[in-house]
Design goal:
This protein has helices spanning about 20-30, 40-59, and strands spanning about 1-5, 10-15. With about 60 residues, it is of the alpha+beta class.
């Protein structure tokens, strides 16, 4: 899970597709009123990829 933001009683976050089952199973046990999916933009994907490479480089 990435980019978790909590505002009022809402959560916004990003989930990699390989962890989507885990997150959906967790959410299924909660009282969810609304669930909205929005695909990542190409810019978001590139930024996450290149930021991850920078972190690995500096370790």
């Amino acid at each position: 899970m990435h980019d978790l933001i909590e505002l009022d009683e809402k959560l916004r976050f990003t989930v990699d597709s390989d962890h989507l089952d885990e997150v959906m199973n967790y959410l299924a046990s909660k009282d969810i009123l609304t669930l909205q999916f929005t695909p990542s933009t190409l810019e978001d994907l590139f930024l996450r990829y290149y930021n991850a490479k920078e972190v690995v480089k500096h370790e």
